[in-house]
Amino acid sequence: VPPVAKVLQDPGQTRTTAAVMGAAPTSQFSARDKPTYVAQTNDPLGHSIADNLFWNDIMMEHAMFFVQLMPGPGLAAPRRQAEEFQRLFLQQLEASRGIRADNVAAFNRASIDLARRFSEYKKSMREQQASGKVRTLVWPLVFTHTAREADRFASRLDLYNRRQIELDRREVVTFWSATMGEHSAFIAHLLDPDEK
């Protein structure tokens, strides 16, 4: 951890969760806790386990948000698609505990395929929302943002399947800075400025 991060990190607010084979992804946490999985081995298997546990959970949540933000009969078809993605990512998340050295590449390929299909759905929904063809409660930027996350998830798993675990510092900083900046903007627009 860089020295500045050590100063800023509040151990009461942050806690890592070991990403190990056979670990239940979320069962040991209350509804308020959000585990952060950290690879326990510095190899493609360890990183694959951690990223599948983390990102399949995130993708499932994206689908859940879309379901909630697509009310009414006019949005039944895209809402059903989001419900199906939610079900598939939950299934993939639960299966993530079974990742082993002999099945990691195949498991990653399944996650890559699912993440890419979800990314395409998000990009399509973004275009439809921006053009006025559909009227959901999802901002176009949320579709773009979540598609970018799905694309990165797929890209990282593809690298692990090629036995590459190194991080490109510039890519990491650019991705996470943009991602967290957008998260802050989304939250700011959802909060009541009069509430104290």
- H and E order: HEEHHHHH
- Per DSSP, what share of the residues sits in E-state strands of 2 or more residues? under 5%
Radius of gyration: 18 Å
Briefly note the structural class of the backbone.
mainly alpha
Which outline best applies? globular
Number of strands: 2
Largest sheet: 2 strands, parallel
Strand order, main sheet: write it out. Answer: 1-2
Contiguous low-pLDDT stretches (5 residues minimum) are 1-10
Intertermini distance: 34 Å
Helix content: 55-70%
Q: What quaternary form is this? A: single chain
Total of helices: 6
Query: What is the arithmetic mean of pLDDT?
Result: 86
How would you describe this protein?
With 196 residues, this protein is mainly alpha-helical. The protein has helices at residues 3-8, 44-68, 76-95, 104-131, 140-161, 169-190, and strands at residues 16-19, 36-39. It starts with a helix and ends in a 6-residue tail after the last helix. Mean pLDDT is 86; it is low at 1-10.
Task: State the main characteristics.
mainly alpha; 63% helix; globular; 196 residues
Summarize the structure.
The protein has about 200 residues and is mostly helical.
Task: Give the secondary structure arrangement, pairings included.
Elements: H1 3-8, E1 16-19, E2 36-39, H2 44-68, H3 76-95, H4 104-131, H5 140-161, H6 169-190
Parallel strand pairs: 1-2
Helix pairs in contact: 2-3, 2-4, 2-5, 3-4, 4-5
